């Protein structure tokens, strides 16, 4: 088995039940992704629409493509035919755009609401208060071709484990508040995407269901 394949097996053996691995394959070649696929990995994370389009044609049909980058509305039409889950929906306008493009081709697209809890201003997302307000506004209920399945967020890039844990806890708390509230009757509202190579263990302890790991599987990226 290849080194990439061994890494996939190690992570899958380590992750507890109920937590899935998103192998972040962005900027890596199809040959590397196939090594992960041959080890049993099926969920891959990409951040550029053009890359998903190319890799979708070259990879087996049962691959699930998760979009984890910042998504612009002018790229939605190109993405919607291929994506399994969009992690990074950060506005009602983007939700409506995804809904419209999904309706146009006759499918329903699963999405996560992206939360901004980190200290870096460069990260995207709704504040927890904005997220709850959007969910409670009734606007999402009017969208028939988009299905909100949970939330996503990133912690501050810091060595302060207490700060990281507190931010993950805030993401999970927002998810729990939504699940008890306007998503109480939605069994598909079940995903919390948080945790990357450096902090995924903390994220799992704080309630993550999807961890996004790339560099420690595939190595440094070739941009």
Could you describe the 3D structure shown?
By secondary structure, the chain is an alpha/beta fold. The protein contains nine helices and eight strands. The protein has helices at residues 3-14, 30-38, 49-58, 76-79, 92-105, 128-136, 161-180, 200-205, 215-218, and strands at residues 20-24, 43-46, 64-67, 85-89, 109-116, 146-154, 191-193, 210-213. An eight-stranded parallel sheet has the order 7-6-5-4-3-2-1-8. Helix 5 (92-105) links the parallel strand 4 (85-89) and strand 5 (109-116). Helix 1 packs across helix 2 and helix 6 runs parallel beside helix 7 (161-180). The two termini are 26 Å apart.
Distance linking N and C termini: 26 Å
Which class best fits the helix and strand makeup?
alpha/beta
On the 0-100 scale, what is the average pLDDT? 96
Q: How many alpha or pi helices?
A: 9
Rounded to an integer in angstroms, the radius of gyration calculated over CA atoms is 17 Å
Uncertain parts: none
Q: Walk across the major sheet and give the strand order.
A: 7-6-5-4-3-2-1-8
- Estimated helix fraction: 25-40%
